[in-house]
Amino acid sequence: MSLAPLGGALACAVAWLLLGIVSLVPAGGAWFARRAAFALGALVGVALALVGLQALWQPAAELTLPLGLPGLPFHLRLDALAGFFLFLLGGVAAGISAYASGYFAGETPGRLALIGLQYHVFLASMAFVILADDAYLFMVAWETMALASYFLVTTDHRQGPIRSAGFLYLLIAHLGAIAILLAFGILHGGRGDYSFAALRAAELTPFWSSAAFALAFFGFGAKAGMLPLHAWLPEAHPAAPSPVSALMSGVMLKTAIYGMVRVIYDLIGSLRWEWGLVVLVVGAGTTLFGVLYALMQHDLKRLLAYHSIENIGIILLGLGMSMVFVGFGHPAAGALGLIAALYHTLNHAVFKALLFLGAGSILHSSGLRNLNDMGGLIRTMPHTALYFLIGALAISALPPLNGFVSEWLTFQTALQAPLLEHGVVRSLVPLFAATLALAGALTAMCFVKVYGVAFLGQPREPRHAPNVPAAGAAHDCGPAERIGMAWLAVSCFVLGLFPSAFVLMLNRICVALLGGGLPQEALESSWIWLVPTSRAQASYMPLVFIVVIVAVILITVVLVRRFYHGRVRYSHPWDCGFPAQTSRMQDTADAFGQPIRHVFGPLYRMKRHLPGPDDAAPRFALVIEDRHWYWLYLPVARLAGFVSEKIGLLQRGRISIYLLYSFVTLIVLLVFVR
Amino acid sequence: MTSTSGIAFQLLQSLFVVLVAPLLMGWVNQCRAWLQNRIAPPLLLPYYTLAKLFHKDAVIARDASPLFRLTPYILFGCMWLAAGIVPVLATALPFAPAADIIALVGVFALARVFSALAAMDIGTSFGGLGARREMLIGFLAEPAMLMTMFTAAFISGSTQLTTIVHTLAHRDFAVHPSLAFAAVAFLMVLLAENARIPIDNPTTHLELTMVHEAMILEYSARHLALIEWAVAIKLFAYMTIGIALFLPWGIADAGDWAALPLAFAALGVKLVLAGAGLALLETLLAKLRLFLAPEFLSSAFLLAVLGMLIHFLVRG
Predict the structure, then answer these.
(1) B262 CB contacts (<8 Å, ≥6 apart)?
(2) Which tens digits make up the pLDDT trace of B52-68?
């Protein structure tokens, strides 16, 4: 047993904490936070990713820290699962921190020092969530994470909507935390201590293990933004500064997935297929909801937040299939599902962080968030445009990028359905694959909309036109931002082109959690092949794929130039005989989503104002709201208000009444407790 | 595992598909003209058009980004890749393991996304309109296509197109009701994905009904030629996928070079019939209103899903 990776991970987490604390030192206008903190944080991230990678290949290591409450020391443990999530955290945080070092450079000293503290505490707390080996440390780190991110979300706390977004986030985060605490309580069952080893050893009846599953699923799902606990996500993620949005969407949601896998697969163990079905149904709903509402957004960051909901749904689909297969006693297919889910977790972290950073660059340089004001940014921000394109293709699950690999693996898991003995479940599982297919195609539509409206075409608002040197004309991002985005964009390619290396890594987690992994044939195939079960069943070679496309493109270019000519005349776009074309005639983001509003109309709560024929100032307005607010959130809020009003009757504000309460309580106690 | 002859055959097959694809287009156009009592254009007209377009000077809008100029090449590359994966003449394709049916659907999606992006690049109202409509059709056609493929994959226990075709070609002549559903769904997807009537009209230039044509309005000369060629390869690829899944008999097995002439003849007959059938369908059907297209395609999607469920019911 080697302590090297665990010690390294601990050192990285502590280094982040120290960076945060030093950022607070206000010497010379927060120069440390401005010049060094985020860059050093990026290096720590790289180190943590390497440590996580090393831990994947080593047996689990444990450590007890002499901290915490008396009799409740902090336990740390680094196994394959934790190693993988540390790798994710470190790798993605490295890109985001590099970007942040440029992005935050222009902040005022006071704000910058605070952001530096909260940002690094946030990172460190996520590392501790992953390293924790007892419920106590886990909850402490979990709450630190929630609070640090709450303060980051409310960085611009002078704006009312941001304060209420932060409040909603804090509220749902705590609902989730209570559920997680109760799940730990059930696992503990009044015996032993709260270390994960003791929780793992607990023998539960099916009822209590199902209750623990339900609580853990609810609790972690609230943090992950699954339906119907998602309402905070599209409010809170866009409210935060862009690197923080990237961190929250890219990494923080993944700690919820980590928690789910840790508690359900590791601590509860003995999976049941009924749980898998629950996860599948919720996952399918979350996926479709996320993408359909994303298509209706015109605020770029809100749109990306809705896509985070969708991708959490896709991860849940993989997890659910895995639970169904394991529950029916097919560990190999179950391992495939778990690998698909974890691979998508990693992929989503990378491309969603990249997209949020791209959105941040647009916001930073042009001040625009509304897609309907953008257009033609590819000419003023070519670097951002390139990186954003890579992210958009990756999230649209297009080969040969990384999003495709994990969706491919999820499809392959669904195709194992004939293994199942239960007739109904066997025909249900492919239906969830159909949901995934639909969501994938809708995502592609959504990102054509985003990219086409934001980066291509003409600027929709004349003041953002590139040749007008007015205030607000966009410019490309600086070198630090470029490094951050390039790091994540290259990761999209690496994860997409060399999937078998990562599948081998993830297989180690499956072996640790399920006691079995992929079949031998899948593991022995060479590194360019991705084979989920056997070569006869399915295989995918992304490297060959991209080589062929690139080769054909090059050959065609050479042939066309060689045999014909490369002559080009530049001209006006064709105006179809209507000479008065303006940039306002292009599709807006709302126009692009119109067919979807038409097809899926009943799913949205729409308020439309259409101009009448005799309006002097015709105006078209459309407001789309989430139905969940009306049937779930507002009734619950009203109920809570009603109940607290009734309880409030007790509160009279006179000390004699309060003394009377104490007196009555004492009497009652004396009567009953003897 | 891959012999030299296999690789040579792979290259030859891709080349064959790429070169023959415009011929199929010409044949469909000819049949349609006959059915509509018009004098048919020459069979080789698509080749003349390509040659003409390659010789012209390209006219590009001033604001075009590099994405606009790169897209025709990407489309052509994607379709070439598709032509390499689909077993047209024989199931011996050393390149086939690189991409299975899911990846094949992914290749078509990649091409679609790039053509929609290029359409929005110039910033004309038509480009956006075409892109929006194309993505509307795509988001329903793509899952329907995938579900059709899944039905075949469940029957043969594999997502490799070559394995599927091998299994389906060598099964006993048993009627798979699920395959019948899948075939109808696939036909509907084929019509939609290749911009044919009743979803789109390949010959229209009427602004209100254009989908694919609206997207490529800004292209000219060599770029347009590459796009037209890619469209022809796409139609050919879809036809051969349909043939491979639902009428695979006659295809040559791996290493069975003697069966190749027969495979050629079988393919020729099937394509001639399929092309004539497509022209007949296009003559009989009327173009649907755009907002009936989602209904058309969602029925294709539901048919494909039903086919998949029937497979489980009949077997289980």
Answers:
(1) B250, B252
(2) 998 888 889 888 889 99
Q: Would A583 be classed as within a structural domain?
A: no
CA–CA separation, B180 and B125 (whole Å): 41
Q: What is the pTM of this model?
A: 0.93
Q: Which two tokens stand for residue B300?
A: 């294709």
Which of A544, A575, A597 finishes a domain? Answer: A544
Chain A residues with CB inside 8 Å of B299's CB? Answer: none
- Which pLDDT score is estimated for A478? 84
Residue A556 lies in a domain: no
Q: Which of B125, B163, B312 sits opposite A585 (nearest CB)?
A: B125
Can you name the residues that pair with B58 across neighbouring β-strands? A568
Q: Is residue A187 part of a domain?
A: yes
Residues A632 and A528 grouped into a single domain: no
Q: How many domains does chain A have?
A: 2
**B11 and chain A in contact, CB less than 8 A:** no
**Claim to verify: residue A273 and residue A134 sit in the same structural domain:** yes
Least confident of A7-11, A403-407, B172-176: B172-176
Residues A502, A650, single domain; the answer is no
Nearest residue in chain B measured CA to CA from A444 = B113
Question: Of the spans A290-294, A375-379, B192-196, B249-253, which averages the highest pLDDT?
Answer: A290-294
Tell me which residues of chain B, numbers 181 to 210, contact chain A at a CB-CB cutoff of 8 Å: 207
- In a domain, residue A603? The reply is no
Q: Hey, of B73, B215, B289, which one would you mutate to test binding to chain A, going by the most A CBs within 10 A of its CB?
A: B73
- Token digits for A450? 């985003």
Place of tokens 């972290």: A349
pLDDT (0 to 100) of residue A254 = 94
Mutate one of B7, B108, B112, B135 to test the A interface: name it (highest A CB count within 10 A). B135
Cβ–Cβ under 8 Å, residues A446 and A295: yes
Helix pair A499-514, A479-497: axis angle to 10 deg? 70
Q: Which of A544, A562, A590 is the last residue of a domain?
A: A544
Strands B58-61 and A621-625: unpaired
Mean pLDDT across chain A, nearest whole number? Answer: 88
The residue whose two tokens read 């990846």 is B103
Look at residue A490 and tell me whether its pLDDT is greater than 70.
Answer: yes
So what's the pLDDT on residue B85? 84
Beta carbons of A599 and B78 less than 8 Å apart: no
Please tell me whether residues A148 and A34 are part of one structural domain.
yes
Cβ A578 vs Cβ A563: under 8 Å: no
Q: What is the pLDDT of residue A472?
A: 44
Domain shared by A39 and A157, yes or no: yes
Q: Which of A381, A393, A401, A540 to mutate to test the interface with B (most CBs of B within 10 A)?
A: A540
Distance CA A118, CA A567 (A): 56
Give the per-residue pLDDT at B123. 83
DSSP-assigned beta bridge partners for residue A570: B60
In the structure encoding, which two tokens stand for residue B306, read together?
């039903």
Locate the chain B residue with the closest alpha carbon to A549: B77
* Confidence (pLDDT) at B173: 59
Higher pLDDT, B278 or A583: B278
Q: Which two tokens stand for residue B75?
A: 């489309």
Domain residues for the domain of A342 are 4-544
* Sign of the torsion angle spanned by Cα atoms A59, A65, A70, A72: negative
Closest CA to A286 of A258, A260, A316, A253: A316
Average pLDDT score over chain B: 86
| Among A99-113, A299-313, B198-212, the range of highest mean pLDDT | A299-313
Task: Read off the pLDDT of each residue in A379-397 and give the average, rounded to a whole number.
Answer: 93
